[in-house]
Amino acid sequence: MMPISSIFKISLRALRMNKMRSGLTILGIIIGVSAVITMIAVGSGASQGIKKQIASMGSNLLIIVPGTTTASGVRMGAGTQPTLSVKDAEAIKELLEVKAVAPISSGVAQLVYENRNWSTLVTGSSSSIFSILNWSLAYGRLLTEEDVRGSAKVCVLGDSVAYQLFGDMDPIGKIIRIKGIPFKVVGLLAPKGQSAVGTDQDDVVYVPLTTAQKQLFGTTFPGQVRMIMVQATRDELLDTAQEKITLLLRQRHRIGHNQDDDFSVRNITQMMEAFQTATKILTILLGSIASISLLVGGIGIMNIMLVSVTERTREIGIRMAVGAKTWDIRLQFLIEAMILSLLGGVIGILLGVVAVELITRLSELKAIITFSSVLLALSFSAIVGIGFGFYPAYKASLLNPIDALRYE
């Protein structure tokens, strides 16, 4: 058997003599590898974005919203019936499975500072809202229970609101007007960025709950709130907390056995995790679809190699006549197929990196290239080279030297 180095040199020489054919052969591999890397990167980026979103919005979350109303036989949407109150929130807080509770009264309002103005969501809540939603403080201070008890006219701004009203100025201590009412800025929240659905999480203002109820939005009845946010003590207690909250509110609202709830308890954390699982499945699906182009590229390698065997029949006959063994011929064509597929894989990886960078720069989607996706694409291209190069190599090695020399 000839030395591997000699067979390798012969294979490289054969590929260089047919540059155009070699280039067309690896085109399918290049497209396939770059597509696999790009698709997996897009899916991984989406999955990471959802993980970040779950972390930014807090963990173990339940949201309680009011129920529906029915007018003239027409059922309205959830939240149209004002059934939740601060007293409900205080009762929920006593449950052992509950870590923190934040009643919320919110609405869109116009904010004004000097000659600048901005319309945004103003949220009235307790001091617990910041720990529940995992907010970090950039500087200043957060709302306190003293602010809530005293109906203080103070506010904490999200990063986007602060920029719109103050630009690069320090907002702490400044007076802004919300619906014409003066509020003192006492804190600035650290930026969170966009949510999984593309909304700006930093476009928000927090004020004490009592101030929002009395000064900004009013209430249909005393203590009414728009929703209640609940944080369970542990992830495994979410379902138990949801069941106990439902039972507690049914008792407090005097709902009969056969009557529908006048509220709804939603498990936000599980909803986001389900969305993340769906994204992972989509990533696998996209990668699988992209892998089909690798198979097409492999078939292209096999076809070209078969043509190459036919064209080089006399060459194979001469090599066999001077002493080349069956495995020498077989190994030569296998090495040629592997070189083509690996070269296509490397070029495909480079193109995939460029494509991912362009997607990240030209869109708001952050695609992430993982080492596993690169290794998968490169390994798959090598397997394609061996798998689809074997048959042409096997066919070439079975040629009869005398028939090969006579081939025209």
Summarize the structure.
The protein is of the alpha+beta class and 408 residues long.
How would you sum up this structure, described in words?
- This protein has 408 residues and is of the alpha+beta class.
- The protein has two domains: 4-53 and 274-406, no CATH class; 82-261, no CATH class.
- It is 55% helix and 18% strand.
- It contains 13 helices and twelve strands.
- The protein has helices at residues 4-17, 19-56, 86-93, 129-132, 145-149, 159-166, 209-217, 238-252, 268-311, 313-321, 326-362, 371-397, 401-406; strands at residues 61-66, 70-71, 74-75, 98-113, 116-125, 137-140, 154-157, 175-178, 181-189, 204-208, 227-232, 263-267.
- The strands form two sheets. Strands 4-5-10-7-9-8 form a six-stranded mixed barrel.
- A hairpin with a 2-residue loop joins β2 (70-71) and β3 (74-75).
- α2 (19-56) runs antiparallel to α9 (268-311), α2 packs antiparallel against α12 and α9 (268-311) runs parallel beside α12.
- The radius of gyration is 33 Å and the shape is elongated.
- Residues 70-75 have low confidence and may be disordered.
Spatial separation of the terminal alpha carbons: 28 Å
What's the gyration radius in Å?
Answer: 33 Å
Number of discrete domains: 2
Poorly predicted ranges: 70-75
Largest sheet features: 6 strands, mixed, barrel
Mean pLDDT: 80
Report helical residue fraction.
40-55%
SSE string, helix = H, strand = E? HHEEEHEEHEHEHEEEHEHEHHHHH
Beta fraction of the residues? Answer: 15-25%
Number of strands: 12
* Morphology call: elongated
Strand order of the largest sheet: 4-5-10-7-9-8
Q: Count up the helices.
A: 13
